[in-house]
């Protein structure tokens, strides 16, 4: 068969900038240099205006980080008009908290400094992540303006964000450890903090979003499964309640019957829910 097709251009093609080095930090007990990377998913050049950006932080209990593993599930956001930046951050075998928060903010500063290269609107920044990455997204958002966590290069750039979307994110490390229905992951909180949560309340407070929430905290969209066996859904409920009590614009969606890292979070219905929330707060305002 031979046929001429007249193809309509309904959507742009996509680029992927893979494993871009955004920072060099101490590695191997401070005796070597560790490169940290990010991957950018974006539309082909030629857009009429810069696009809002979503910084994505994958999970792994702070023990392992693969910033490329979720990229296929994030394409819906790129198609909807966002640039997606998936960020590698140090795991807890490489550095204890708040190194992970410092890495996340360093990535945001780096991308802001190169916003033109990636078609990004630096005034419209979202942080989103799952599990340990959800915790990191929350912490980035509630520490807007906390200069002690801005460490490294591009310090003339801001690490401020405009919205947070944690998926079944850890909130308080002690509560997550004590109220989980499984003890299989108890060790991850000690490794992250550099001490047992039960005996180091000062370390727990430094890694707890509740510590930093104020009336100036940015909007939150929180997602959590009702049958999460790793991170208690009650912790997301208390986070939501605390945000609302401070006058923060927040929504909590509980996915009925969903477990930790459930495929339910990857469904088009959830992507569209998030996209509507982001457009209402970033694009239409």
Automatic annotation (TrEMBL):
Keywords: Hydrolase. Residues 48-243 form the BD-FAE-like domain. GO terms for molecular function: hydrolase activity. This is Alpha/beta hydrolase fold domain-containing protein. It comes from Lentilactobacillus raoultii.
């Amino acid at each position: 068969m031979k046929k001429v097709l007249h193809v309509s251009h309904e959507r742009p093609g996509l680029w992927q900038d893979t494993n871009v080095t955004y920072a060099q930090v101490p590695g191997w007990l401070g005796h070597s240099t560790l490169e940290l990377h990010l991957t950018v998913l974006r539309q082909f050049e030629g857009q009429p205006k810069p696009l809002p950006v979503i910084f994505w932080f994958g999970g792994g209990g702070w023990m392992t980080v693969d910033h490329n593993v979720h990229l296929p599930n994030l394409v819906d956001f790129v198609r909807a008009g966002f640039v997606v930046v998936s960020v590698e951050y140090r795991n807890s075998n490489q550095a204890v908290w708040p190194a992970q928060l410092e890495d996340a903010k360093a990535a945001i500063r780096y991308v802001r400094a190169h916003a033109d290269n990636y078609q990004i609107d630096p005034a419209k920044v979202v942080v989103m992540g799952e599990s340990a990455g959800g915790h990191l997204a929350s912490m980035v958002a509630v520490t807007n303006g906390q200069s002690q966590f801005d460490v490294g290069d591009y310090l003339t750039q801001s690490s401020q964000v405009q919205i947070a979307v944690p998926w079944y994110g850890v909130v308080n490390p002690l509560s997550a450890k004590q109220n989980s229905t499984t003890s299989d992951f108890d060790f991850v909180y000690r490794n992250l903090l550099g001490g047992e949560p039960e005996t180091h309340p000062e370390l727990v407070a430094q890694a707890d979003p509740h510590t930093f929430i104020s009336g100036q905290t940015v909007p939150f969209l929180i997602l959590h499964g009702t049958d999460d066996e790793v991170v208690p859904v009650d912790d997301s409920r208390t986070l939501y309640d605390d945000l609302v009590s401070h006058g923060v614009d927040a929504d909590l969606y509980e996915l009925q019957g969903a477990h930790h890292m459930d495929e339910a979070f990857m469904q088009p219905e959830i992507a569209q829910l998030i996209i509507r929330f982001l457009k209402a707060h970033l694009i239409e305002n």
